[in-house]
Amino acid sequence: MRGSSRAAVLLAAVVAFAAVVVPGAQAAPKAPDTAVLDGARLQRTKVRLDHGDRRLWPVLKDLTARADTWLDQGPWTVVDKPRPAPGGDVHDYLSQAPYWWPSTAPTAGNPWGCPYVQRDGQRNPEVDSGTDRQDVERVFDSAYDLSLAWYYTGDRRYAEKAGQILRTWFLDPATRMNPNLNHAQFIPCKYDGRAIGIIDFSQSYTGVVDALAILATGAPGWTGADRSGMARWNSDFRDWLKDSDFGKEEGAAANNHGTFYDMQLAALAYATGDTALARRTVLDARAGRIDPQIAGDGSQPQELARTRSWHYSTFDLVAYTRLAAIGRHVGVDLWAYRGPDGQSLFKAVDYLLPAATGAAAWPHPELEFERFAASDVVRAAADAGDRAARRAVPLLAEPPGGDLWQLRPAAEQLDSIAG
Predict the structure, then answer these.
(1) Which of helix, strand or coil describes residue 100?
(2) Helices 57-70 and 133-153 sit at what angle, rounded to 10 degrees?
(3) What backbone torsions phi and psi does residue 144 show, to the nearest 5 degrees?
């Protein structure tokens, strides 16, 4: 960036954040008791902003730009879909399997075009209409962005919007979602719901868990009743994940579905006070996940078998790096684990580095290669002490919308996770 352009950006940042980024103008911020994000690190970053650290202003501008887009959107609810889930309760979440397609043209006698057939990696556009899939992603993303923006700026608009969105989806009796995923990723004329649909939540719901912890530090409009209501919802959802047939089936999955299940269960267990379950889940991931899912060279064979092998290799590592972050709360260093064949999270990240830095082409099938998809997991490994990853950080591709790692240091899947 040219000097004059950079100066203009910084000047705009000063104007936009003068009301909130003033040395000595705010009380010491609280550290949120987040599950994945490092609450103490967020607190230190906020102190830097409050004391006028200009190096963070451009990143804060990127974050608030994201949050601003949510202010005039939503709230969303499960009860406004065109038809209820197969069980008939409009409060039940409904989504459709993304890679399943009708085999014939719909007719009056066969309105879905059944039977459905699978096309791995090819997303059926009809899953975006008539279900809750797109709306729930908006709930997750908006709650996360808005709560972080409020925490760093103190702008009550962000907190109040996040509260409205969360209350509408999870708490208000007329619009709330039931705490189960009995009808996630259904296949027309075949299944009313599938265990595999749990990943609709597990891939992003930890962002809501952390948003709740951030709002609990004193967000305006976020009440004690809101906090207790979400705690009950999360406890009920945790128990459904742990005890339901679908939850047990998803927990037995031997690929990214199983990793994300563990991550989601551990985060909910920690957030709802069941630290024993959180610790056990992270500990079990060593022999139960890393050993069978990561090869000695760091590759992930189950993910490499997919038509989007780069996407799914980075995707699985998002779950692992978040699970490792949860482990720090319960005394488990997942980064330090080495399997019997030398498997480790560091090796799995290092396997991605040539493609992530642009030094070499990705040598496996991939329908939509995006180099920036690996940026967050590389940063997570670098922060955890991986020297190769640290050297790679300056060579990473910046994600669309800017690199927000300094303000939300937890891996996100940066390429599309639709479906």
Answers:
(1) strand
(2) 140
(3) -65, -55
- The neighbouring-strand residues paired with 101 are 117
- Whether residue 106 is preceded by a cis peptide bond, meaning omega within 30 degrees of 0, is no
Please name the residue that has the structure tokens 């729930």. Answer: 136
Q: How many CA atoms lie within 13 A of 174 on its CB side?
A: 2
Question: How far lies 322's CA from each of 36, 147, 281, 411, in Å?
Answer: 6, 19, 13, 7
Q: What is the pLDDT of residues 285-336, one digit of tens each?
A: 999 999 999 999 999 999 999 999 999 999 999 999 999 999 999 999 999 9
Q: Which two tokens stand for residue 283?
A: 């500990």
- Span 326-380, pLDDT tens digits: 999 999 999 999 999 999 999 999 999 999 999 999 999 999 999 999 999 999 9
Separation CA 404–CA 419 (nearest Å)? 24
Q: Is 115 exposed, middle or buried (0-12, 13-18, 19+ CB in 10 A)?
A: middle
Q: Which amino acid is at 356?
A: A
Tokens 């305006």 found at:
220
Instruction: Calculate the dihedral angle through the C-alpha atoms of 81, 83, 87, 91, rounding to the nearest 10 degrees.
Output: 30
Distance CA(399)–CA(375), nearest Å, equals: 8
Among residues 375, 363, 364, 367, the alpha carbon closest in space to that of 401 is found at: 375
For residue 417, the model assigns a pLDDT of 67
User: CB within 8 A of 334, min separation 6: which ones?
Assistant: 282, 285, 286, 290, 320, 323, 324, 327, 345
Residue type, 179: P
| 100 DSSP β-pair partners | 118
Q: Which two tokens stand for residue 397?
A: 């591709």
Spatial distance between the Cα atoms of 290 and 17, rounded to a whole number of angstroms: 44
Q: Is the dihedral of CA 95, 98, 100, 102 positive or negative?
A: positive
Q: Which runs of E-coded beta strand occur in 11-139?
A: 100-102, 116-118
Euclidean distance between CA atoms 145 and 244, whole angstroms: 31
Distance, in Å, from the CA atom of 118 to the CA atom of 103, rounded to the nearest integer, reads 9
- Name which residue leads in pLDDT, 124 or 177: 177
Which amino acid appears at position 369 of this protein? F
